[in-house]
Amino acid sequence: MNARKSSFAIGFVVAATLLIVLAGLLPGAKMLSFETVLRVLFAPDAKIDSILVWTLRLPRSLAAAVAGTGLAVSGYLLQSLTRNPLADPGITGVTAGAVAPIVGCFVLLPWISSAYYPLVGLAGGLAAASVTFWVARGGNGRPLHLALGGVSVSLFLGAITIYVLLLAGPQSTALLFWLSGGFQGRTWSHLVHMLPWIGVGVVGALLLHRVIAMFALSEHAAAAMGLQLDVWKPVLLILAICPVAGVAPVAGPVAFVGLAAPHIARLLKPQGTVWEIALTAATGAFIVTCADLIARTIAIPKELPVGIITALLGGPVFVYLIQRGRLDFQRDVA
Asked: CB under 8 Å to 241, separation ≥6 — which residues?
């Protein structure tokens, strides 16, 4: 796929995501017509329809799109860093590492401001990823070694999280819904809190596309080309964990987006690493936005956690990769 076709593919996915965002403004406890939504978008007022769109539904849909962008790029970076097609924030233990200390702070250290939760999630994610990569021989072992190491770390941290939940008392119900992953009640302030962390991951990945392309060859080839592995591996790992650290306090763990989106983008064979990153980001936004719309509409007026929907969508991708034996990391580097 040349640059023109790559840009067209990205534009198409972005346009589809915007249409889903627009469609997400219609359903809810009070259904709105398409004409009403357009009128409120271009001429907001203080009436109930305007409040529903601008205060409740639009920030939620945009938060889902932004979160999907960050999680997809996070998975892409982890797969590129380890040259492992099974790597993603959930499978490598990064998500569990970010969530467990956040829950601990919320329950045991309530005096810590939620503004610091992304930093807490970043530290926890780095610690969990380090243990996983150590188990998987620095991320260079067989793909299943990484998956098994990540699952082991996630199970251990999940047990700690459950124990802390038992100490939460009346707060446990709200925490359980958050742990299922979702964007219910998310506002503009939540979106603003996510943006810097996701921006660091996405912009950093685009700026370092040449470094990422070298990692796609092999560590030996990258070192032979003069790449300082001891410097760039930690940098890429931090860039991969930043979006997870930004999303986790707002939406909890949203599963399998980081696994599925990069593979879907690679199937389209965009030209070069920059286009691949951009298409992965757009695909992640589309997946999570669709999942959020399904979660909101499948059982109106109730809703399902988004994490359940993404798991139902991403689980078959994971099984397909294992059953088909697609465990060799192959892609064109330009």
From this structure: 74, 89, 94, 98, 122, 125, 126, 129
Q: What is the pTM of this model?
A: 0.91
Give backbone dihedrals phi and psi of 35, rounded to 5 degrees, phi first. -65, -40
**Cα–Cα distance, 287 to 306 (Å, whole number):** 11
Rounded Cα distance, 242 and 278, in Å: 17
Q: How many C-beta atoms surround the C-beta of residue 201 within 10 A?
A: 28
Dist. CA 280–CA 273, nearest whole Å: 10
Cα–Cα distance for residue pair 282/267, rounded to 1 Å = 14
Q: At what angle do helices 272-297 and 188-207 cross, to 10 degrees?
A: 160
Average pLDDT over residues 32-50: 90
- The CA distance from 12 to 9, in Å, is 5
Query: How distant, in Å, are the alpha carbons of 219, 233, 333 from that of 222?
Result: 5, 11, 13
Both structure tokens of 224: 């032979």
C-beta neighbour count of 170 within 10 angstroms: 6
What pLDDT, in 10s, does the model give residues 9-26? 999 999 999 999 999 999
